[in-house]
What does this fold into?
Amino acid sequence: MDIDAWVWWLIGAAGLGIPLVLTAMPEFGMFAVGAVVAAVVAAVGGGIVIQVLAFVVVSVALIAVVRPIATRHRADRPRLATGIDALKGRQALVLERVDGSGGRIKLAGEIWSARAYEGDQSFEPGQQVDVVDIDGATAVVM
It folds into this structure.
């Protein structure tokens, strides 16, 4: 049984696709595309040297061009604040006097225990305060 070179390149492309899926490393996908291009070159009658050159040139070009773009996009995506990080910096309404030992505020529609950031500060009901930190289940305000 004599298998054509283009079939071997397609088998190689499929073989490179498996670690791409298992490891999520895009470089394997770029090598797989290079193998598909080499398969096309083999199918139209290109020699082994041209096939290997096509594989290397396409693979290296994809890595040189696509990888920096992907890295830049990954670094530029906005960071979403969730959980307690989303509460830091928000304003709250004082419900019960807040001082260094405690109090109550309304933060994001919920009642929270709170304490003043500086122990000598105090805030009266109805005042707006800024949440500077969350310490356990207590909002630290100023």
About this structure: The chain has a mean pLDDT of 91. The first strand starts at residue 91 and ends at 99. The helical segments are 5-23, 26-43, 48-76, 84-87.
